[in-house]
Amino acid sequence: MAQKGSPQLMYGLNRSFILQCIREHGTISRSRISRLTGISMPTVTGIVDRLVSEDIVKETGKGESTGGRRPTLVCYNLDYGRVIGVDLGSEKVKIAVADLGGHIITLGEKSIWSWDDRSKLEKVIEGIEEVLREIPNYDPLRSALGVGVPGVVDYKSGSVSFAPLFPSWDNYPLREILETELKIPAYLDNDVYAAAWGEYSFGAAKEAKSSLFILVSRGIGSGLITDGKIYRGATGAAGEIGYTLVDRSNLHMNFGEKGCLESLCSTSAMASKAKEAVKRGESPLLKQLCNDDISALTPEIVCQAAIQNDPVASAIVEESREYLAVAIANAVSIVNPEMIVLGGDLAGLPDVEELFVEPLKALIKSHVPHFPTITLSSLTTNAVIYGAIVFALDLIQERLVGTAI
């Protein structure tokens, strides 16, 4: 049995290496594929020819001659299929459709607000189904789904073991449900891991050997990429920086209560502090900017007021970035990353470089043994979406290899 399977196994491995090479290098010749992969020229030619016949790869013209005939160039057929990336939130879901190069074709948001987790999931599925119906010539056999979930996810089984924003999801078989309802393969992972992977694949951390992505939104989390892999920890919960304590008095509080990092400096914490200040009559400017509607106060408005030197808003921003600086300095001392990438809703705030990024660098620099590059996410608020897209692209490639063996 082993001998009979060996040629099939070798073909599958070679096909996988060749597909990955074409995917990474774009337009490329068969001879260069052979040099880069170490696979013999006859084997490369045979596999590439088959990929062309299957419409997975297409020939794009002639390359430059190095002395003989001009080589025929091939590239990944980006329109062979489509992938769907999903950024799942507690009140809204972002859904993107991308080609096989990861280029986003459509991106939209859908409200999923409900008191009931099951109703939220039904709205998510409805939103994805609406998107699938709009894809021209949609073929489920050429599609895959990637999802970033705000919680602890077993990426192998696709079950969610802990999700504070979806309290009923205790060992919840989310991937199984999505695959059953949507009839396409799905890959699920923690949303911050997805963001870190998106930044590593498409964004600011693309050239970094180790990078720590810190997501600051309604919650706070982090994802560490080192040597091209996501660091997950013993139970898949590594990076929950939002639960770190910044004062010993917090030891007497329960897990996740006020006093943990995200209760002090998340974007929702900024908005909550601003609302309390306006209720106390402390900031006429904040009251004016929200048109006397305290419920409409957002972190964006807080930053707008801070730029206008409003003392209350400036104090809220200062306190938030100082708590964040403490957390980042501690993380840098522990994991020694080459790069820190700041993302999430924070990345979309007005004047974020002036209000957060540059002051954070100054605060942290003198408190760490090795100062990393600190930068804003180049994917801004879409890092999770891009990571989910990469998850789906990897699923597509597995299918393209597996169906041919």
List the helices and strands and how they pair.
Blueprint: H1 2-25, E1 28-29, H2 30-37, H3 41-53, E2 57-62, E3 72-76, E4 82-88, E5 92-98, E6 104-111, H4 117-133, E7 143-149, E8 152-154, E9 159-162, H5 174-182, E10 186-190, H6 191-202, E11 210-216, E12 220-226, E13 229-230, H7 261-265, H8 267-279, H9 284-289, H10 299-307, H11 311-335, E14 339-343, H12 352-365, E15 373-376, H13 383-402
Parallel strand pairs: 4-7, 7-10, 11-14, 14-15
Antiparallel strand pairs: 1-3, 2-3, 4-5, 5-6, 8-9, 11-12, 12-13
Family: Belongs to the ROK (NagC/XylR) family.
GO molecular function: kinase activity
InterPro entries: ATPase_NBD, HTH_MarR-typ, ROK, WH-like_DNA-bd_sf, WH_DNA-bd_sf
Explain what the structure shows.
- This protein is an alpha/beta fold.
- The protein has 13 helices and 15 strands.
- A five-stranded mixed sheet has the order 6-5-4-7-10.
- The longest helix has 25 residues, at 311-335.
Brief characterization of the structure:
Pfam families: MarR, ROK. The protein has helices spanning 2-25, 30-37, 41-53, 117-133, 174-182, 191-202, 261-265, 267-279, 284-289, 299-307, 311-335, 352-365, 383-402, and strands at residues 28-29, 57-62, 72-76, 82-88, 92-98, 104-111, 143-149, 152-154, 159-162, 186-190, 210-216, 220-226, 229-230, 339-343, 373-376. The chain has 405 residues and is α/β, with parallel strands linked by helices.
